[in-house]
Every structure is written in structure tokens, then in C-alpha cells.
UniProtKB/TrEMBL annotation:
Protein's name according to its UniProt entry: AraC family transcriptional regulator
SUPFAM superfamilies: Homeodomain-like (SSF46689), Regulatory protein AraC (SSF51215)
GO molecular function: DNA-binding transcription factor activity; sequence-specific DNA binding
Organism per entry: Chitinophaga flava
Top-level taxon: Bacteria
Annotated ranges, domain HTH araC/xylS-type: 192-290
Keyword annotations from UniProtKB, A to Z: DNA-binding, Transcription, Transcription regulation
Classification via InterPro entries: AraC-bd, Homeodomain-like_sf, HTH-like, HTH_AraC, RmlC-like_jellyroll, Tscrpt_reg_AraC-type_HTH
PANTHER family: ARAC-FAMILY TRANSCRIPTIONAL REGULATOR, TRANSCRIPTIONAL REGULATORY PROTEIN
């Protein structure tokens, strides 16, 4: 697979000879790595991708942010994120691939899973370093999931749903405890709603006032709120999403800069180039050369 093209995997592609009729896979990382050597190149998934490490080191790049791999680390990735791995020596751990629809028959709230902070889509928020006690508890849950995925017992997939949700809750509690700020619940709801709107409309809507109107708050309040929660203004968050998509598209060498500018709804190629250079310190062409 060429590094100049982002390949998108679905669960069936990564099935390792096993059916994925229930849209979930649980695999030891050593087996996963042996079967899918191309994951060292940038690629993306059409499903939620979890990786937990119990041994080894290296680096993991998610949406062009680089993180060191170490034991006790748990990665949560949402569909569409571009990522690649680089490992030093042997690594051990677990991988879970799960489609968003896996929980739909089990939960009345289709958006329940998205409420967990590590599924925000922000790369750094999806990387969790677990303390020793929590790491042991999570490893036990992964082992139980491995048993269930191989079982022919009744309700095995329902048990997998329960085990995954238990893990999500445990990890969420750990991350909340490590956050010294005690935000009221409605702040997380507002932040989640804003991020969802940006994800849906960033191609066409670039002004904070447009999102503020949809959220029934003032533009000043939205900007102050975003600075409080994320250290960035609402405008910066919208802009960062546009730049991220530009970077994702620029990996595909066969797509011209002019086409990317058009896809991102810029008036012309020149305006897109100036916008990208202003915030990234290099032109789109230079960025493409640096990652090739």
C-alpha cells in the first residue's frame, strides 16, 4: 500500500478469516499486527478502533499528532481518523474493532457511546494513560471479551456489549478523576453538541455566530465557553477542523490542490493556499512533500 494514499478499512476487510456479522472483533495485538502489516502506513477505519498496550513501545500518529506508545496506554479512535503505528521491538495488548451500529439494538439512545470524552474525535482526548490498578481491571475485561468472542454461548454478543460499556465507564471515571476541573454536566453536553455541529457543517459554515445561533447562545458566550473548556476560541476549533480535513486530503497524491480547495469550499486555489500557509507555516504542496 502506498503512503501517498489513505486506505479506508471496514471490519470485513480486517476479519482475519472470521465473519464479523455482529460488527465487532476482539483480537490480541500480536495477532492483529502479524495479519495486518500495512497498519504502519497512514490509514483510517469506518468503525471505532480501540487499542490497549500491555507491553512494548513505539509511536502512534493520529490525525498528524504523534504520541509515544507505552504499556498501560489505551487508544480510542472514532471512524474517519487517520492514523499509523511505528513499533520498537515486540508489542503486546489487545485490539477491538466495533461498528457504531453494534450498540443500536441494545441502547435506546443511539448517541450514548459518543458521550464518553475519549470518543470526542480530538486526538489527545482519545489517548488515555491508565494507572496500574485501572490497567489491571481493563486487561481483565479484554480477556473476558476474548473468551466471549470465541464462545458459542447464548447472548455472547450481549455480554460483549456489557463488557465494552463497563470498560467505557471505568475509563471515563479514571479520566474524570484526573481532571482537576469539576465541570457541570451541561457543559459537556454543550461542548459535545458544538463539536457535532462543526463535524456536520464545517465545509459550509465557518463563522462562530452561525453555530451559536444553532445552539441558542450568543457568539461571545460560545467563544468564552470554548476557551474555558478547550483553551481555544470557537473560530479556532472550526478552523482546525478545516485544516485537519485538508491534511487528510493532501495525503492522497492523486488529488490536485485545486480539487481539494474546491472540496473544502474555498473560493479558489490561491485563497486555500494562503489560508493553509497562514496557520500551518507551509503551503499545501510543501506539506504534501513532507509526508510523502
Amino acid at each position: 500500500m502506498s503512503k501517498a494514499h489513505i486506505h479506508t478499512y471496514d471490519i470485513c476487510t480486517l476479519g482475519m478469516g472470521k465473519p464479523a456479522s455482529e460488527n465487532i472483533q476482539v483480537i490480541r495485538f500480536t495477532d492483529y499486527l502479524a495479519a495486518h502489516k500495512d497498519i504502519r502506513f497512514p490509514h483510517r477505519h469506518s468503525f471505532y478502533h480501540l487499542a490497549f498496550f500491555t507491553k512494548g513501545k513505539g509511536a502512534h500518529t493520529i490525525d498528524f499528532e504523534r504520541f509515544p506508545v507505552q504499556a498501560g496506554q489505551l487508544y480510542f479512535m472514532i471512524p474517519g481518523q487517520v492514523h499509523s503505528w511505528f513499533f520498537e521491538g515486540q508489542v503486546e495488548g489487545y485490539v477491538v474493532n466495533v461498528a457504531a451500529s453494534f450498540f443500536n439494538s441494545f441502547l435506546q439512545d443511539a448517541g450514548y457511546v459518543e458521550r464518553f470524552p475519549f470518543f470526542s474525535g480530538a486526538s489527545a482526548e482519545g489517548v488515555v494513560m491508565l494507572p496500574a490498578e485501572a490497567s489491571t481491571e481493563v486487561e481483565v475485561l479484554f480477556e473476558k471479551m476474548l473468551l466471549e468472542i470465541e464462545a458459542t454461548e447464548a447472548y455472547s454478543y450481549d455480554m460483549l456489549r456489557l463488557l465494552l460499556l463497563e470498560m467505557f465507564v471505568k475509563v471515563s471515571r479514571v479520566t474524570r478523576k484526573s481532571d482537576t476541573r469539576q465541570e457541570p454536566p451541561y457543559n459537556y453536553v454543550l461542548l459535545s453538541n458544538f463539536r457535532k455541529l462543526v463535524e456536520q457543517h464545517y465545509m459550509q459554515m465557518r463563522l462562530p455566530k452561525e453555530y451559536a445561533a444553532m445552539l441558542y447562545v450568543t457568539p461571545n458566550y460560545l467563544n468564552a465557553f470554548c476557551r474555558h473548556m478547550l483553551g481555544k476560541s470557537a473560530g479556532e476549533i472550526i478552523r482546525d477542523r478545516v485544516i485537519l480535513e485538508a491534511k487528510r486530503l493532501l495525503i492522497n497524491a492523486d488529488t490536485s490542490i485545486a480539487t481539494i480547495a474546491y472540496q473544502l469550499n474555498f473560493a479558489d486555489n490561491s485563497y486555500f493556499t494562503k489560508f493553509f500557509k497562514k496557520y500551518e507555516g507551509m503551503t499545501p504542496e510543501e506539506f504534501r512533500k513532507n509526508i510523502s
